[in-house]
Amino acid sequence: MTRALGLLVAWLALAPLALAQEAPPLRIRVKLDRESVLLHEQVVMSLEIVHPPDARASWEPPPFDGFWAERLTTRALADDPSGLHRTEFRRALFPTRAGTLEIAASRLTLEGEGGAEQEVPVPGASVRVRPLPAGVPPETLVGALEIHLVPGDDRVRLGKSLPLTIELAGDANVWDAAVPALEQALGPGVEVFAEAPRVTIGETGGRATTRRTFRYALVPSSAGRVRMEPLTISYLDPKTGKVELAKSEALAFDVFEGGAADEPRSAFKKRVALSSEEPWPLWPFLLLGLAGIGFGAAFVGYARRVDRAHAAAPGLLSPRSAFDAARAARGSSEFHALLARAVRAGVGARHKFDAQPLTSNEIAARGAEREAVDLLEALDRARFARRSADDESLLERARAYLAL
Predict the structure, then answer these.
(1) Band (262; pLDDT cuts 50, 70, 90)
(2) Angle at 294 between CA 292 and CA 298, to 5 degrees
(3) How many angstroms separate the CA atoms of 43 and 33, rounded?
């Protein structure tokens, strides 16, 4: 009896240790996708946590002194071989000064079953930031960059305004880009009204895709053809260490004066008038009156729908015209950007909001179809990776989504 009691006491003493050995410990790993970068060059910090399946992790990040920090999506990674879950928190960091920058330690909160919380320290890290090469102006953007012009139309009536969107996109620090000097580029014949620029953050290939959007209303003062040479902006490519030049499309649109001559003409021949000696039958007038009433009702309904659509999303592009422009540019460097513009035009037409300045994540958050979001992400990968893609497949996917 005494021996059995001793064994029981020993088992109770050793049981917690055995359970502790069976339960895999919590593991935390802080990783930088590069340890040395140029000033303003993007570096991605990831915090990977291996934790029990019934626990939920939340991270309180450090202040990131010396960085412009942008949040990337939190990802659930494949389970650890031990059966534990893996969660990854990420930040895109853009250093704002040269030297060795320290990322402070932070903390992680793990909430287990029943609401029990456990705080776990997270180690810091350091990044070596190199200054820009000699001869490179300090205002030069760092990272791959593209610039695109998206006019609302190719013609505008005199006295009206033409919407224009200018978009800088890539993995560079686009928020530091200078405002395009449109007044100088267009000349005194066009008045320029600008909206406040917007910065949005997307994600491509695990890195932040930054996008700065400038929107304008152009008001020409005379009829005729308006042309503007392509806009250019310089950036430092970290891969080559050289200053490259991003170049937009040229801008051209027609300004016309309104009048009877601009109204569409009928393609049908005029009928010969009835002889004055013949009696005028009444049935054509009755049919004409009924047709006029029906046409008037249909036109009023159409006008109301158009007004509602314009009120909900002013200045939306035509998906058909945008798709035709992309198809015509197949094989060129502008193809993927123009096809993404067509898909966004289709999203705008379906959901009645302007999708042109939005990222694929923002478009998904507004309720767009997964088909459109996946296609936009594929086009972003093809455009920013600068490698060939199955353009015919992308074109057919866009055609199917737009139902053309």
Answers:
(1) low
(2) 115
(3) 6
